Amino acid sequence: MGRPIVDYFGAHDGLQGNKDLVSAFIVDGSWVLHDLLQLHFPALCNKIEQVPLVTNASMKDTLIWMPSSTGDLTAKHAYQFLRHPSPSMPWGVTPHTIVNLFHKGLSMGCSSQLKKLWLICFTSILWFVWHARNKTRFNGKSFSVASICHLILGHIRAANRLENGLMHNSVQDLRIIKSFGAECQLRRAPRFIEVVWHPPVIGWVKINSDGAWKHAEGVGGFDAVFRDFKGHVLGAFSSNIDIPSSVAAEVMIIIVSIELT
What we know:
Elements: H1 5-9, E1 26-27, E2 30-31, H2 35-40, H3 42-49, H4 75-82, H5 95-106, H6 112-138, H7 145-162, H8 171-179, E3 206-214, E4 219-227, E5 233-241, H9 246-260
Antiparallel strand pairs: 1-2, 3-4, 4-5
Helix pairs in contact: 6-7
């Protein structure tokens, strides 16, 4: 009402001097409310009468701090009352944010093993957290954070063995993969095959040729390159032909090469 109830109703013999103490409305351990209050505020009087009273009449009224469970005002409660409230944040992550996080992990320019490891980690965390949440909510089971992390890491290590992605041969990839306890799938070192071309003697032409044949289709092809003793290309050709075998393709390219020279 913004002002004491006595001032609101005006001077009244039954309410004079009863502004401050609740004990004025308690007689013999029971609430005794004035008829004027019961007439104009029956709902309020009903709530007041539902408040239990202490049977020990010798106890005095005591000030309590309502936000505290014990009624005591401490420095901690005063700080929490005076500080600015923190903005409320929804628990969890929205589906749109989850999709963005998933695609961000795949677009970091990582090796194929790290991308597959990220996919395994992402789906494993979602699955085991969701599974533990359902078990706790519907079956009354409890899980510790350590046990869930142990299950997630075990699943990541087992699933990583089934993938065939390769890591970059770098310290960064090694540290990330080892932090999950997963096995590193190293790239094989590239093989360098030295190919040496020996030129023919002066006045001669060297022919390098090759032929191939497809058994299912019964067709083949061959090609050849002509070079002189200085390595200059004098000419080249390539052709397709219906032939019965790969041997026939090799023989045919020799014949055609001789004819052209």
